[in-house]
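thread: overnight batch results

M.L. [08:02]
morning all. the overnight job finished for the chain we discussed friday. pasting input first so we're all looking at the same thing
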Amino acid sequence: MNAEMARERTNAAKTGGTDKVEFALGLWRTAIHKATDAGKSEVSEADLPAAAWATVPLAARNEAVPHLQDDGFKVVSKKVGGLKTTIVMW
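M.L. [08:03]
and the structure it wrote out:
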């Protein structure tokens, strides 16, 4: 097994697999579509369905960010009310 395959297996174990990353991306994209339809230009974690978002491991949440950036979205993390949150803007 080469180093790249080993890294992929380690990342898959941490994130819960590519399914969890895709699930996280799906939640973000759904929220983005709803916000766009409502005339907004940003969404945060608070706009995601709480119960579904709670099932996504932190590593999968973090892995979804570069994919959103590749899709042309600006992603920032900042503290809101003392809690760190992710905000996606377009």
